[in-house]
Amino acid sequence: SYPIDVEAIRADFPILNRQVGGDPETPGEGADDDTPLYYLDNAATSQTPDQVVDTISEYYRGYNANVHRGIHQLSQEASVAYEEAHDTVADFIGADGREEIVFTKNTTEAENLVAYAWGLNELGPGDSVVLSEMEHHASLVTWQQIAKKTGAEVRYIRVDDEGYLDMDHAAELIDDSTKLVSVVHISNTLGTVNPVADLADMAHDHDAYIFVDGAQSAPTHPVDVKAIDADFFAFSGHKMCGPTGIGALYGKEAILEEMEPYLYGGDMIRRVTYEDSTWEDLPWKFEAGTPSIAQGIAFAAAVEYVDDIGMANVRAHEELLAEYAYDRLTEFDEVTIYGPPGDDRGGLVAFNVDGVHAHDLSSIVNEHGVAIRAGDHCTQPLHDKLGIPASARASFYIYNTREEVDALVDAVDDALELFA
Ligand code: PMP
């Protein structure tokens, strides 16, 4: 049994019933497909339930129009749905309201928005930005490059041998020169759940801001940005049953109010003359041009979908599968798993099999219909630190079962035999 009704949930995702194995040159046709699909690549992107797909098609079939500036009926309907989507997302993470929710393309764009709109203006020589060694490239590359442009220093909180952040080291690094701490809430490689509220306290003790990368946490955990006391929090719709092309940046209203716009243009202005311009209210000041309207409305539908299941239940389910996968994969002497123990991690397991490159493993596993990821998972410096070029990663979501983990384990067994 499971903490959630997996069978009922699976019925909302017809893609899970398709078979694989045919020619990928004919996407979606599945002509020669004869192997059941086991989709274990959810940390990269999750599948999309009928409710969300229907929301997109209802929009295009029923009230497709540009938002904000129209008086006509369709534009009003689209505007109401698009604007209310911000309220739904705000509620989901405990924000005060739509003023604190900027829709972005994804987590990466949210990170860049703050880097360009705030970092470029506020950082300079003598300032430091504190990251962790387990940051995703979305924050690592962004702050590294903004630091180069501004003369600020980047510091990295050490990851210990078990895959946890060294909090004593964090306390040493975060000092009065620190203007921003940016940390990943749940590592997409190690599965570590970081103590972001403690890091927020450390940052605030030194009048620094904290940016929490919630790409892996918002989809799978109950998140309350006020309880964490995050100044910024970002996540992507496509990792939580939503469409691609939409994500959210949460920012405390007072901070967003002070920040310069990131992109200039239509929809973000109040009054423009040939000489100067003034800005629209939050959050529209940060949403220049025609936004991703259908995606924004469908993002809210995705939030409602996972919220209906209950985020504590979603967490319990992925915790159960991560622990099961961890235990089953540890049965192989040849398998090395990265990160904390099976009973203390997010819903993913990154590993290597002795003598088999992660890419070879992933392609053998693919022949069994099992979809996992192989590579550096956008954490190249962390892979360097671990002394490995790549790893394989299985990641779980609401529709996954123990049987699917078993299919992975059987496929790994097969790979071991092939390479023996
Ligand atoms: N941060 C983390 C921890 C992630 O796992 C990801 C997605 N792999 C990102 C940031 C970037 O998300 P996106 O590609 O949607 O911008």
UniProtKB/TrEMBL annotation:
EC nos: 2.8.1.7
Ranges of residues in domain Aminotransferase class V: 39-408
Top-level enzyme category: transferase
Cofactor needs: pyridoxal 5'-phosphate
GO biological process entries: cysteine metabolic process
Keywords from the UniProt entry: Lyase, Pyridoxal phosphate, Transferase
Protein name (database record): cysteine desulfurase
Species for this entry: Haloplanus vescus
